[in-house]
Each structure stands twice: as C-alpha cells, then as structure tokens.
Design brief:
With 284 residues, the chain is mostly helical. It has one domain. 80% of the residues lie in helices and 0% in strands. It contains 14 helices and no strands. The longest helix is centred in the N-terminal third of the chain and has 27 residues. It is globular and about 45 Å long.
Amino acid sequence: MSPRLRADLTLLLVAVIWGSAFAAQRVVAVTGAVFIFNGLRFLLGALAIYPFARKRPWPKGSQWWAVLLAGALLFVAAALQQAGMRTTTAANAGFFTGLYVVFVPFLLWTGWREQPTWLLLVSVFLAAGGAYLLSTGGETFRLHPGDELELLGAVFWACHVVVVGKFAPRLDALAFSVGQFAVCGVLNLAVGVVTEPFDGAILRSFMWPLLYTGLLSVGIGYTLQVWAQRFTPATHAALILSAETVLAALFGYLLLGETLTAFQLAGCVSILAGIVLAQVKVVR
C-alpha cells in the first residue's frame, strides 16, 4: 500500500472518530460550557499525546509560528462549532462544518495559486451538494443562529486544514499536535473562566463526553490528521474528512434519535460519491 493511500485511509478513520464526536458534543452543548469544555478536552488531548512526543524533534524558532497559528485556528473553529450546537442538530452542525471542503480549494487557489483539476471540483461540489441534502432533508432551507456560527466556523476549519497541509510535512506530527492542542486549550480556558459559570456539577454532567472527545477526537483524531496530511494534498484531505458529515448524521440518528429522510440518505450517497471520485487517481 502506498503512503498516499495509507494516509487517505487514515483520514477516513479520522472522519469516523469526528463524526461520532458530534453526538457527544451535542450532549455537552446544553450545559452552555463552550470554552470550558473545549479547553479541558484539548488540554486532555495534549496530555495524552505528550508522553509519546516528549523525545520527538520539537519545532524550532520560526516553526513555532505554525504551531501557534494552528492552535489559534482550532480555538476559533472549535468554539464556533460548539456554540452553534446549542441551537442546531448534530446533522446540521456536521453539514455546515463540512462546508470547509468548498473553502479549502478556494483558499489554496487565492493564497497559493494552486488551481484544482476539474475532477476535483466535481468531487467538491458533489460533497457540498450532498451536505445540503443531508442538512435540509428536501425541505425549505432556513438559517438559524446556530447554523450561522457553524458556517463561520467552517471557514476557520478550512484555514486549519490548509495550515496543517502546508506545515505538517516539515514538522513531527506528535510534537505539532501537542503544541496546537496546548495553545487551543489555554485560549479556551482563558476565555471560559471569565465568561462562563462553572462548578463541579457541570463538570460531572459532561465527564464522559469530555473523556471521549478529549482522548479520541482530539488526542487521536487530530494527531492522525496531522500525520496523514504529510502525504495527502489539503483539498483531498478535506474531501475525505467531509465524510464526518455523513457519520455525524448517522450517530445523531443512532444515539440522539435524530431522523434521516430519503433526501438525507441521498445526500450521504452524494458525499461518498465525491470522496470516491477524488480517489480515482490514487487507486490507479
């Protein structure tokens, strides 16, 4: 198996992890502890990975700017995502977050003059169209406050994918991950202790979602993303990761009782078709 194909399969695993985490994050959203929850889960992820990264080559000098930037983008994106979940469904949150698949090639084209191929553009629009069907279920499209936050967050998720794609090949994946998690966690806690009420009862109410998202979604998921993007272009990575929208809807159905219509199932098929189409040259 080639390094590229192995990396793509790893990204698919990341999509599974992140998709399942949407349900856990929805459970926490009702508590209102956006920044506290994000701060704790990202610091937990950093602590979980640090023992494995301690003796790895760490960033030097100006390389730390990439780590700081990635952590800051994670901070904004994760905060917008978690805040939006207060007033939207897990499926809708997955849809708007998944729109970063459209923003990534646009950012690469405007910032680095990397023009996508027509096949890649078709894949992107298949994924975006599928995400639309998955979100609306064939009904009239209406924006809610939570959806707007998720859409804005998608821009920052796209920026994060691009930054990781540009700098991950130059840095150790574990060290990079610990650094960005720590930055994101500290920023979240700094805002959370000032803006959010918090006590032991609230912590106990989301202990299991915290452990799940901190260790699995953050610690394992984001670290695997950094490693995989050493071998996979950012736009292709975004396409594969967009499978999390399908999985978010699936886990929302299985764990939260959210329904899936025929239109939403068609959207799932469209997203998966876009991902498969983008892999044609890789498999060859």
